[in-house]
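Can't paste images in this forum, so I'm doing it all in text. The chain is below; anyone willing to post the predicted structure tokens underneath?
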Amino acid sequence: MASTYTSNTGIEKPGTGEQSGTWGDTVNTNSDILDRALNGVLTLALSGASSTLTTTDGTLSNGQYKLIIFSGTPSGTHTLTVAPNNAQKIYFLYNTTGESIIISQGSGSSVTLPSGESDVVYCDGGGASAAVVDLSANFNVALHLEVENNLGDLQSAPAAIVNLGVNATAAELNYSDLDQPLGISSASKVVTADANGDVSLSEELKAKSYNETFATASSSSGVLTIDCETGNVFQSTLTENVTTLTLSNPPATGTSYAFTLKLVQDSTARTFAWPASVNWAGGTAPTLSSTSGAVDIYTLYTTDGGTNWYGFIGGQEFS
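Text version of the structure:
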């Protein structure tokens, strides 16, 4: 009785009484075929526009591998035909060629594997009308996720958020791109941010350490401008008499803001004119120290958007 072969992988099944004394060769070949079918990995270099992936009965062949990595330089979209067309196959595929690969077996449907993509395909072995099916495309993610851990409704972000117990809308969570504001202001939220990126906390803040932004400012034509948006501690080394102090961009009324100003005297004594909006204890503005290199430190404070400032002398004539 002659040998027969398994229909899908080509493993030889010797007939009764055959191959006496030579079974070792057949068993070894069959073992290698099984190894390819179970965990075999093939790197297959493609060229031109088409090729055939063949499984040959009783012989080691490329169509027996489980995972196939496509390499090489096809001339364009490459058509790979699985043969024979009556063998059912499941392949894990990875395309590294730089071109798309069309996987076909007969006149039925085919699967296109784009460059850089991987896929799992099923060849139905239907003969002349055999079809190739993309198993990955039909994988229902939601069906395989537990409801209690539900990321399952992946096509409905609001539903998934509710199932996860998150008290926020999809829009409020959708800020992974740091070019966008941190959040959307909404009642009952602990942390909110406006369109300018200004962050508010609804409760007290306890920090291990607290730092303030330090910035330098220089006068020009007698005007010194302090931009309150850029920091809370400023330093200006005088090079001329300051006749105008401009305090720009304080926060709106109802928000407290204070800054510290360090003034370093020039080698030539310079004068400093405080604006009328700054109120000092006793109604008298301080006079700047005149010693070369002397350091004076002041703090200014407002709660009404900069309409009124309150000035405090931190110290003068530091050297």
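The CA atoms of residues 146 and 270 lie 74 Å apart. Confidence is low (pLDDT under 50) at residues 175-185.
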